[in-house]
Amino acid sequence: MRFDETYAGNVFIGASNNLEESAAVLYGMPMDWTVSFRPGARFGPARIRESSLVHEEYSHYLERELTEIKYYDAGDIPLAFGNPEKSIQQIGDFVSQILALEKVPIGMGGEHLVTWPVVEQVAKKYPDLAVLHFDGHADLRTDYEGEIYSHATPLYKISQLIGGENVYQFGIRSMTKEEVAYTKTAGIHFFPFDVLDPLQQVLPTLAGRPVYITIDIDVLDPAHAPGTGTPEPGGITTRELLSSIHAIAKSDVEVVGADLVEIAPAYDPTEKTPITAAKIIREMLLGFIK
Questions:
Q1: pTM for the predicted model, two decimal places
Q2: DSSP string covering 124-151
Q3: 53, exposed or middle or buried, with CB in 10 Å at 0-12, 13-18, 19+?
Q4: Using CA atoms, how far apart are residues 112 and 149, in angstroms rounded to an integer?
Q5: Between the CA atoms of 156, 158, 159 and 165, what dihedral angle is there, to the nearest 10 degrees?
Q6: Binding residue positions
Q7: Cis link prior to 187 (omega < 30° from 0)?
């Protein structure tokens, strides 16, 4: 599928139908082929779009409106069901088209493995790339039960590609002993448990650099976002995550891509998880697209 083909489904609020004039492209990666606990994240992108209708197009935080930035909703990538290796290739091909037109890719997952092929493409365009990772889990395993294509492995793959010194992890509160050791040997900037304070310390050191932002919804405490495949107690609040997004938006880094992943709507009958996710996407669009 070409990303600029007409999308007949629901679109995120404020989306433009003019691709050429748009600065960013929003797209879904409906994949949950490798999740280790609860499936269902493939339904995340569609439900986030539907939930966006509850929000205003104007952000009082950033004093901007979605119509000011012009972004295009390309819909969901039609992935090879149950085939992670082929799906990764399809995501990479899709994102490469977005980058070729000088648009900023903003993705919605989907399990966290989907971030790997996106960063692989973004790093080709921006060799000095840094990745800021917000998550309840480190995702630094080399494999999960022998499977190298797993939602537990994307940050390991990314660190191998761009160098651990260019990876910054925030909010992590669940990892193996081996992952802890790897953060040290690889030189990863690792900030467990907390997010906003260490982020504010890091951002000035990244001024002027291209940065990719990846957010797993389970960086939030399950009280704030129960609709996810692998909930992890002890997380941050929604306000802390929004404040972190705004800190990035007001910094001097150049956000060249971003994603929000692991929303599994079936586990949250209150729908606060996709509603929260939609607000996060709105703030990312308004804050990261200059």
A1: 0.96
A2: HH-TT-EEEEE-SB----S-BTTBSSST
A3: exposed
A4: 11
A5: -140
A6: 112, 135, 137, 139, 216, 218
A7: no
CA distance 156 to 204: 25
Half-sphere exposure of residue 72, counting CA atoms within 13 Å on the CB side? 21
Q: DSSP H helical segments within 44-176, as ranges?
A: 44-51, 66-69, 84-100, 115-125, 154-162
CA–CA separation, 93 vs 48, rounded Å?
23
Q: Rounded to whole angstroms, what are the CA distances from 169 to 8, 50, 109, 166, 289?
A: 37, 30, 19, 10, 22
**Could you tell me which residues are annotated as the binding site for Mn(2+)?**
112, 135, 137, 139, 216, 218
Looking up tokens 């917000």, which residue turns up? Answer: 134
The predicted pLDDT at position 4 comes to 61
Closest CA to 280 of 232, 251, 241, 249: 241
Map residue 38 onto helix, strand or coil: coil
**Which residue carries 């090879």 as its tokens?**
80
Going along the chain from its start, the domains and CATH numbers come out as 24-288 (3.40.800.10)
> pLDDT tens digits for 72-102?
999 999 999 999 999 999 999 999 999 999 9
Q: How far is CA 33 from CA 36, 80, 148, 155, in A?
A: 9, 10, 13, 17
For 120, the token pair is: 């692989």
> β-pairing, 189-192 with 210-216?
unpaired
